[in-house]
Request: fold
Amino acid sequence: MESVVHEEEEAGQEHDASGIEDGELEKDTELVSLDSKSKKKRKKKPKKKCKTAAAGLQFPIPVPVKIVSSHTDRSCVAKQAIKAGQLLFQEQAFGFIIRSPFIPSVCSFCALPIVLDAPLSCTSCHMVSYCSASCQRKQSELHDIECELLRHVPGVAERQSTDLDLLRMVLRLTVAKTVPTVTSTTMQQPLSLSSQWSDVSQLLTHKEHFSPSWLAAVTAAVTDMMAVGSAKLSLDLEECVSLACRININAHGLVDIDGDSNTNIGLGLFPFVAMLNHSCEPNAVYICGENGVMSVRAIRDLSDGEEVSVHYVDLYQPLHQRREALLHSKHFLCQCRRCLDSIQNPSSIDRFLSALCCPLCGKRFLLQSNPQDVTVVQCQSCNWKTTQLAVDKVVDDAKLLLTQAEGKIVLRQYGAARKLLDQLMDRYEAVDEPKGISSRRYLHPDHYILFSALTPLLNCCNAEQDYLASAKCCRRIVGSMDRHFPVNHHEKGPFLISLAESLLAFVGSRSNLPRKSSHQYRQEAKDALVRACEVYGVCLGQDHKATRAVHAKLASL
Reply:
């Protein structure tokens, strides 16, 4: 791959169509050709020995991207020039589940919210619920097979200290091997594909990276389920453990079904979406839809042959946190352009996410470690010095305030939470003080802790109907995202909409507001909605429910 290190292939474990093991050396062959002029046989130089890549996954239908495999990795690249907002493909999950906390409120078949007063739940296992008799009927064949074992899974998970939803997902995928997927109506559109069990079996397991204790717990859990037994479903121990590994490495969360929430309500396995490698500067995004369908769209123009990438982690995390999360969960060290620039370029704005500023010079100058003494940090401008322990304590204290505020929000104590968040901003955000006066405020304005405090602060302001304060939070969130996110990124959409709603609510609540001020606020709200339409149009598509809703808001102004 050109810029992203992701899924190293498991050489020697995957096979191509001819049955030759990946990584096996090609045999030398002597090539003989007939010269048409001399009619003499002439030997050509034998080709050098090289490693061959397994045939691997390939898209079963024509799409504007292709999977490129080698002996070390595989990636998805553009087959042609692609425009921002273009649909690359959409894939129906080979299998998906609704996460346990959301079973009563989200349909297990279509993944849409259940609006019935009494959901249609399975009275035997209590592990699935449906929004309609139609959805229940469509999944009846699949659930009838898994139900007998499924009702024992919570006890097995607790007894073996194993994740409940992981075991549910293993069962669901095992059943999906033999039960045909009920195709969503969305899948009748162009660029729509469904995966097969053979596609699932080619996904990486990275089994060697999992801890022995985790593998032992999963093995014990599957063994327990096999001991319970089922007349309708037979489990294979090795296959189930490998499935658990594949789920942990390759599965995707089902989020944002309605386009207005980032809540992770489900878990699905999409073998072709799993071919998209990670970059901290992604050029594509995947969006969930009904019935476990995932759509992949370009979020900027792509050139022919350019690798298609998405992001696996929060893009507002600083470098060390992003890399650590990817190394822990996906077993690779990110080498994307953004990460390398952050390491090699002292002026990279990516460094601001964890930057500490000089309390004398303000936010213009950052503290850096002293090469001669790593226990000391100093300003590169005025040479002001302090200890690493002192600045670490500042960061820890700021984190503690944020944690306390989030706890208050859980209890719906918005006033107390807002007081703590305001205190966090006032006490720790670096500002430019008059020369020679120490502010003792270290955190760069783009610091991830301050950014993490903005959404809770917005919720507090909304709860107190402080519309101008809400708008201020939204402006700052969008501004920070603009500096550190791709131009078109779907996470900006809700905050642009919230900015518009806050400004319009403020105008509506002030009958004596000067006409000029009212016009300015309404124009800013309109501009925010126009931009939200652009972002959603690219990331979600013009026909998406959320995109249409924003267009309707804009048209009403």
About this structure: The chain is about 40% helix and 15% strand. The two ends are 47 Å apart (CA to CA). The longest helix spans residues 515-539.
